[in-house]
Amino acid sequence: MSYVPEIESTSPEEIRKYQSQRLVDLMEYLNTNSVFYKNLFHQNKIDYRSIRTLDDLVQLPVTTKDDLQQHNYDFLCVERNEIIDYVTTSGTMGEPVTFAMTNNDLDRLAYNEYISFSCANTTKEDVFQLMVTLDKRFMAGMAYFLGLRKLGAGIIRSGPGLQRLQLESMKKFRPTGLITVPSFIPKLIEYANSQGINYRELGVEKAVCIGEPIRNNDFTLNTLGKKITDQWDIKLYSTYASTEMGTAFTECEAGRGGHHHPEMIIVEFLDENNLPVAEGQAGEVTITTLGVEAMPLLRFKTGDMCHHFTEPCSCGRTTMRLGPVIGRKQHMIKLKGTTLYPPAIYDVLNEIQQIENYVVEVYTNALGTDEILVKAGIRQTVPGIEKRIKDHFRARLRVAPEILFLSPTEIADIQMHEHSRKPVIFIDKRKGS
């Protein structure tokens, strides 16, 4: 039986009361220990003791990625000799940011993934193949390892890529679950088919999918999700997290959004004026961490645009649920009068069988407006394929990008440069980016 913390099945009123109490403690902690936040309170003439409830949060300025980049170590709330581990962000939205973690922070991270895997119907009877990196100061791989260890589940640390090694590990250890970037699964299936390996009989029952959306806004599987499940009868669980929040939102069996863990984090969904949006409207995910010792954050804007849902879930949890990430606010594209986010482009590309891999580039044209160039990996061009691809884009998104065909190997080289921790499929070359 998977574990559900008591707070996650109480009333919304009880959850708000609990989080308000934790917020009061956090304000005291930040004012005492954080150089950045103590200065922020002073500069904005904020009496930190006046912040008593979640409704009071709107009185506070938001924290941005720029703040973290410019004042990185001013966020540190402990002495250097208390730091056990250093992690860095991936740098997809600018210069990477360093985060320090104490022993208590690592315990918190383990607990977060313990309850997140419990959402994904994982027990100590499971064995997971961990297909992400644990090196290069990457938090995610370590977090999954710590959470599965706390849960008591088996772990196969196979790392990313290397289809042959992954399948050999599956044959040998018979994992019940995978932790992977979902776009890698079709590549694994293709390799298995080419080698005459019956991947369906390797014992895998589910996959926890990281880093890429597998659902549409109505929670149906998107093109990538359907491509996987049409070929492999496994249960897909979506999870959303970031280094800054040190917390995950993971789906349960219902597959109706990632569950909020209120003991770990306060979540707001804000508009352009940093005010809360109503349910049913997309807002920028803005977080306040709870229980973080070394580098807690207050009203940090993640850049991710999402919907949120508050009705109780069929699994019994009463917590808010986070919808699929629509896109990063910073990555919004305006192409010929149509507003797009990169995931919508990926979804179209994933529908086109001839395209093996791709990179989407956006740049500013001579008129000062956005243009999109899709570099598509294809083994052999056939007459009319570019027109068919553009027509497909127009049918789905009303507009079409420019297309450049390259070999899949050339695309892979662009995706994985020397310092990459995960494939780069979006490159923003716009002025000011």
Low-confidence segments: none
Largest sheet: 6 strands, mixed
Distance from N terminus to C terminus (CA atoms, Å) equals 47 Å
Overall number of domains:
2
Q: By helix and strand content, what is the structural category?
A: alpha/beta
What would you call the shape? globular
What is the number of helices? Answer: 11
CATH class of the largest domain: Alpha Beta
Helicity level: 25-40%
Oligomer: single chain
CATH-level-4 superfamily name of the largest domain:
ANL, N-terminal domain
CATH topology of the largest domain: Rossmann fold
Q: How many DSSP-defined strands?
A: 21
Strand order of the largest sheet: 4-3-5-6-7-8
State Rg.
22 Å
Descriptive account of the structure:
There is one protein chain. By secondary structure, this protein is of the alpha/beta class. The chain has helices spanning 12-33, 35-43, 65-70, 103-119, 139-151, 163-173, 184-194, 223-231, 342-350, 385-397, 408-415, and strands at 85-88, 98-101, 127-130, 154-157, 177-180, 206-209, 235-242, 247-250, 258-259, 265-270, 283-289, 300-306, 308-309, 321-322, 327-328, 333-335, 338-340, 357-364, 370-377, 402-406, 426-428. It has two domains: 1-328, ANL, N-terminal domain (Rossmann fold); 332-428, GMP Synthetase, Chain A, domain 3, CATH 3.30.300. Helix 8 (223-231) links the parallel strand 6 (206-209) and strand 7. The longest helix is centred in the N-terminal third of the chain and has 22 residues, at 12-33. The strands form six sheets. A six-stranded mixed sheet has the order 4-3-5-6-7-8, sandwiched between helices. Strands 10-11-12-15 form a four-stranded antiparallel sheet, with no helix packed on it. Helices cover 30% and strands 22% of the residues.
